[in-house]
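Re-run with default settings, no changes from the original entry. Doing this only to confirm the output is reproducible before filing.
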Amino acid sequence: MAGFSFNGIDSISASFAELAEMDDETREKLLRAGGEAIERHQKEYLQQHHSRTGELAGAITLEVHPKSALVVPRGKQKRVKHRVKSQSHKGSGGARRSKHHGKTGASSMMDVGYYLEFGTPRMAARHWMENANKEAEPDFDAAIAAAWNEHLNKIGF
């Protein structure tokens, strides 16, 4: 009777089991590597194309959570200084307009990014995020591949 024998299948199956299970540290490294590439490209794109003050580009931050990463603008937009009453013309309504519906005149940087991306009835959409993310694809892929290869080397693949 013919027989078939082989050696080493146990070590291969154990390696595949290690590969299937990703630890939290590796997941965080992958998310952080990809998020940093996206964050860098969004800041560069905003500084090149849509930067009057640089406020929005400076507000872009990376937040890494256990199973996700967010690249979002955080914070409030600095208040735009309005004319003081002595500088305003009589009857111009300067004091009334400066109140901005009871708010302090500030809006969140997330709102500013949204309005710049999708536009408003009075402003055309600029699609800064979409364009920046398209430009970031090669760097994003390279960063993820480098982090993944580091993980593979660590487990012995």
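The beta strands are 60-64, 69-73. Residues 27 and 67 are 7 Å apart (CA to CA).
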